[in-house]
Each structure stands twice: as C-alpha cells, then as structure tokens.
UniProtKB/TrEMBL annotation:
InterPro entries: YdjO (IPR025916). This is Cold-shock protein. It holds the Pfam family YdjO. It comes from the Bacteria.
C-alpha cells in the first residue's frame, strides 16, 4: 500500500510477553524472547523481574 504526503504506514500494536522490573525506582523491561535466562535480572538496576503482558508495536 502506498502512502503519500509524508504519511507513514500505521504501526500495528500487539500483546507481547515481557519481563518487567519489580523495583519501584526502575522502569526497565524487555521482551521475553530477548533473554536466554530462565528468570533474568534487570539490565538497568540488577533487580528481579516478573512476567507481564504489554501492548507494544509489533516487530517485523
């Protein structure tokens, strides 16, 4: 599909499994499939992480 007048193709948002930092001072998160660890630690503050589902842009 062609888009004109500098309009960009709309980005599709999908529900995605992510790891989210449990620390109140940190807002770190990462997609679940970006970690090789069974339960990864936060790459920003090294705290524990928990699984969540977020609606984020789809990666192609």
């Amino acid at each position: 599909m062609a888009f004109f007048n500098n309009e960009k193709e709309p980005v599709k948002n999908v529900e995605t499994n992510v790891w989210s930092c449990v620390s109140d001072d940190c807002q770190g998160w990462m997609r679940e499939n970006y970690s090789f660890d069974e339960e990864p630690s936060c790459p920003i503050c090294q705290s524990e992480m928990k699984k969540e589902i977020r609606v984020i842009p789809e990666l192609k």
